[in-house]
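Entry:
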Amino acid sequence: MNGLGNDFIIVAHFETLPENAPELSRNMCDRHFGVGADGLVFILPSDKADIRMRIINADGSEAEQCGNAVRCVAKYAFDHKLVQDEALTVETMAGIQRVWLTVENGKAVQVKVDMGEPILRGEVIPVALSQERIVNHPIEAGGEAFSFTGVSMGNPHAVIFVDDAPRFDVEKWGPLLETHRLFPNKANIEFVSVTSPQEVEMRVWERGCGQTFACGTGACATVVAGSLTGRTERRALVHLKGGDLEIEWNETDNRVYMTGPAEEVFVGRWHKA
């Protein structure tokens, strides 16, 4: 499945996470010798929500949260009748998320997700800084100076505003910033250029994956950072490499809502032990 080109192998036939999940993900996500994906996602039973989601990145590490994956999981669960309602809850490592589906002809075609409240305190994101908010903070990598705004959406993000995100050298700067000493658990790095207060372009280097076509939590972090720095309004359309996401940082409940598509591409069988 994919959410705007951020692609995942979805497995829904386990009761618990298999012990070899990291190795399995590295093998299955290999784009030459495996299926090829940004991550391996397990849909599991939950005693707290309708379903549970565990995400293993392509490098074998586990992600706390992933906005594109949760849309794929919600669509899969509804389309394959693991759940019956168009409103459901998904348990993740970052907490329980509420999801609403737009359904046409018995299939989910659009997914809105309550991504929760953004975490802005440095030590909790985590960033190796003690400020209550990390806004436009200087950071140096590879001999170049940048400034970033730190946001956690259940996973750590560093949002960097640049002049031209679509042409920015993500492959060069992404890995240097992901592993910067300021980020004790590494970080997802968003490179963002502002088109208008209601519209931005974003490119992303995802922790454990590399450059991907889209990142849902990154789009959420981008609008939060845009609002904190006065560059955007609290609601904006985020243009990613794989398509668009509608993001709203609601002023009333302080929660971030993400709306976008998900798509099932093909079904297969894994033969390797």
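The chain is about 15% helix and 40% strand.
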